[in-house]
């Protein structure tokens, strides 16, 4: 192993890093800084950056849902400097297969207020922007809104600017954007949706029906993000979020010859927001149907927010029968709303969108989908400048096998 000081960060690499300042192992033992373990891993199978909470993950050739399964630590097999860093939350993995990996050594650890830009001001985009304006006064500095329909953007600027509480002076400023400004932000939120089935269309998986049209549009913005050297979070709210996140990853990391060069958006900065509302719906049905009283503390959701969804009634007291019932109720909740003659977009815009986006910026636990071995998998996680932390559990075999099935399903469809 090689030991380096790169931009005042400790980097330990399995390979020689040209033009980097070497340091001694003793210096590492005497410092309490973050430690980055640098490995070359296939970016199509392995994350770009993450916090190391279990050292065994460094031995995986590729990543998969076993990361949700809590393993016994084997810290006794590792040097003291690594044991201390992991136990103290100072150890991170960084993937040097990305040509721009040094950019991941982010120097901005201090809290700040963020600039968020929203593209697409339809049903979801407008409600999501409203939630951000109301809830984000302490974390959001400004909201930029953009839509191909200029009058939509103007309308939401006027409406959002008139939402204020006399007890607060920190509400974010609202600005109408030109298209060439959309990536001048800390978080880009994609809310464009085309081809949404009509109320009476009888479509079972509405989100999949939108994939083809939304993929074309999001691929355009993914390439624009690369052209603009976008360094922020690319947040996907349009359906289906997991597949559109993968489209962003693939398209932004291709060069002009359509070859993967991984100079676009790294996987840890692409996140999809659709699972928050499924957790909220599961909580509602658990109480309304008296399925399981402790869902809010013990229950979890995984995977897509459509076909492939997994709702666990409890992680500690898992019941396959109760969980299947809860999964079916949650998965078909949107059809119940549609049966009333309305599209189900308000709860998704707030629970999956506004609330989860703010939790992301606050480094708080939330539901979103994140890169995992070549797919984007929905789960409970938290995000920071230094990557994602996945919640892990002691999973029963039957629940773990369901995670494997959903993982395979996501690999198969895209």
TrEMBL record:
Q: Which domain of life is it from?
A: Bacteria
Question: Domain Lactate/malate dehydrogenase N-terminal spans what residues?
Answer: 115-253
Q: Which Pfam families match?
A: Ldh_1_N
Q: Give GO terms for biological process.
A: lactate metabolic process
InterPro entries recorded: Lactate/malate_DH_N, NAD(P)-bd_dom_sf
Q: GO MF annotations for this entry?
A: L-lactate dehydrogenase (NAD+) activity
Q: Where are the transmembrane segments?
A: none
Name of this chain's protein: Malate/lactate dehydrogenase
